Automatic annotation (TrEMBL):
<dbReference type="Pfam" id="PF05648">
    <property type="entry name" value="PEX11"/>
</dbReference>
<dbReference type="GO" id="GO:0016559">
    <property type="term" value="P:peroxisome fission"/>
</dbReference>
<protein>
    <recommendedName>
        <fullName>Peroxisomal membrane protein 11C</fullName>
    </recommendedName>
</protein>
<dbReference type="InterPro" id="IPR026510">
    <property type="entry name" value="PEX11C_met"/>
</dbReference>
<dbReference type="GO" id="GO:0005778">
    <property type="term" value="C:peroxisomal membrane"/>
</dbReference>
<dbReference type="InterPro" id="IPR008733">
    <property type="entry name" value="PEX11"/>
</dbReference>
<keyword id="KW-0576">Peroxisome</keyword>
<keyword id="KW-0472">Membrane</keyword>
């Protein structure tokens, strides 16, 4: 999340100074690009944890209902396909291997990214709604747990954060698909920075809950 915040805050500054100070904007754009590349490289080792998580999750028997289980299984399948596609794009970008139709692979990578974020958003929304029902019942019984209420509010923050990620993901689609290619550098930087800041806040908030 810290690297994400640095990446998009640099992009935000680059977008803001694009016309005011092109030389400064170029420097920050390079910094943002390098950090983004580092993040992409680090994601190359995410396969094993993802496979382990998918195997442990199975068919989602521990989920509160079938809809959550269905969304969870679908999201895991999409992520398991997304990671190797991203690796192919990474190999093509760095000219390590010759990949035919590299642009098509990039578009496919964006599509799977959008699907992954969308399914994550749907899961979070569903979980928020189920927890809201529990809190409503607890309110009627006058037995609301403070920690549960705080977790519920953090879940609402997750919805906002993932929604921002979804807006960003869709913007990477080819022009003509929703708002693909329509966001400026400044807008992408703003969305990414806000999402990262919310993520960092959630990390510390969850740690306080545990302690």
């Amino acid at each position: 999340q810290v690297m994400k915040a640095l990446c998009y805050s640099a992009k935000l500054v680059a977008g803001y100074h694009a016309k005011r100070n092109p030389d400064l904007a170029k420097r920050y754009a390079i910094a943002s690009s390098k950090i983004s590349g580092a993040r992409a490289t680090l994601r190359l080792i995410d396969d094993i944890p993802m496979i382990q998580y998918a195997l442990e999750y199975g068919l989602g028997h521990d989920e509160p209902d079938r809809i959550m289980a269905m969304l969870g299984v679908t999201a895991n399948v999409v992520d398991l396909l997304y990671y190797p596609i991203e690796k192919i794009c990474w190999l093509a970008e760095h000219k390590i291997v010759d990949v035919k139709y590299a642009d098509n692979w990039d578009n496919l990578n964006s599509i799977f990214w959008v699907l992954s974020v969308y399914l994550n958003l749907m899961r979070t929304l569903r979980n928020f709604w189920l927890n809201q029902e529990k809190l409503n019942r607890s309110h009627q019984l006058s037995s609301i747990d403070v920690k549960s209420l705080v977790k519920h509010r953090l879940e609402l923050m997750s919805i906002i954060r993932i929604s921002l990620d979804f807006v960003h993901a869709v913007s990477t689609l080819p022009k003509g698909y929703l708002w693909g290619g329509k966001l400026s550098t400044f807008q992408v930087g703003s969305i990414g920075t806000l999402s990262a800041c919310l993520g960092i806040y959630q990390i510390f908030a969850k740690r306080r809950l545990i302690n």
